[in-house]
Amino acid sequence: MHAPDTRTRLASLAPVAALVGSIVSLVIGTSFAKQLFPVIGAEGTSAYRVTVAALLLLAVWRPWRRTLGRRDAGVVVLYGLVLGCMNLLFYLSLRTVPLGLAIAIEFVGPLTVAVAASRRPIDLVWVALAILGLALLLPLQQASAGLDPVGVACALGAALCWALYILVGQRAGHLPGGQAVALGMSVAALVILPFGIAGAGMALLSPSIIVAGLAVAILSSAIPYSLEMVALRGLPRQTFGILLSLEPVCGALAGFLILGERLTPLQGAAIACIMAASVGSTFGAYRARRVG
User: Fold this and answer.
1) What family is it from (predicted)?
2) So what's the pLDDT on residue 116?
3) Which distant-in-sequence residues (6+ apart) come within 8 Å of 193 by Cβ?
4) How would residue 1 be classed by pLDDT, with cut points 50, 70 and 90?
5) Residue 219 in contact with residue 266, Cβ under 8 Å?
6) Is residue 292 predicted with pLDDT exceeding 70?
7) What is the DSSP letter of 63?
8) Closest by CA position to 244, among listed 291, 192, 282, 206
9) Cα–Cα nearest to 213, from 231, 230, 229, 192
10) Mean pLDDT across 117-131
11) How many angstroms separate the CA atoms of 51 and 219, rounded?
């Protein structure tokens, strides 16, 4: 009698577990990626991640089976450019900014898009929380003097690219999802590869680096993308957004356990502010849709 109920509960938990698994795999993969920086730099590591992801997506989706019009091709190229710049800037920020903080700063991008699309007064609270979180992180005061301004600027650039990625992605929304992502990731690889080759040179062809680069790409791209697809099919959008807000704290935990990165209390408070703003904005948008 209870077996069907148990199976139903497990089935309902599967998308949640998939998204949490996606986040954990992403932050672990990114933590290992940061350990490759002394050998091939942030540019080389980013090139490995995106290029391997592009090859995997091309093999799975085979986007050449459908032709694109000139306008759609332009949108896909723009989508890929933004995606490539977002990945490169995020990895560049990791050279000097702790993982959890870099993720938190990058989250400001999608949060800005969500709030800008709303007209609810409560969103001013989430804007204020996000601004407070950023103010605690910007290296303009003694409490955050240890943060590198260039690293913070790269993270903010990644946040801007994430916002543009969402907006451009919406323009490509009428295209088959697999085709758009595969072609966009391929363009992103073409954007990043020259930087990776210029920064790392022949070190990219070292057998040990190839193995490590493949592991990083699988952990931080292939597994998360696959698990996110499972999660998106089984979770309401608001639940997905709220759970995704766990990413900064997971990044901070992975940074501490794998990289030995320690955050100050103010930096922890900054992450909490940005996460609260993300959760509040997502939940508020869900309630607004239900009322509407």
Assistant:
1) Belongs to the EamA transporter family.
2) 80
3) 47, 51
4) very low
5) no
6) no
7) G
8) 282
9) 192
10) 81
11) 14
Predicted pLDDT at 177 = 66
CA gap 118, 6 in Å, rounded: 39
Could you tell me the two tokens for 66?
């459908």
C-alpha 198: how far from chain center: 25
Checking phi first, is residue 260 left (phi over 0); if not, alpha (psi -120 to 50) or beta?
Answer: left
Cα–Cα dist 257/251, whole Å: 10
CB 194 within 8 A of CB 144: no
Please provide the average confidence, as pLDDT, over all residues in the chain: 86
| Contacts of 53 by beta carbon, 8 Å cutoff, 6+ apart | 185, 189, 217, 221, 222, 225
Place of tokens 């993982």: 99
More confident residue, 136 or 42: 42
What tokens appear for 184 in the block? 């966009």
DSSP string, 234-284: HS-HHHHHHHHTTHHHHHHHHHHHHH-----HHHHHHHHHHHHHHHHHHHH
**Among the listed residues 163, 156, 154, the one whose alpha carbon sits nearest the alpha carbon of residue 109:** 163
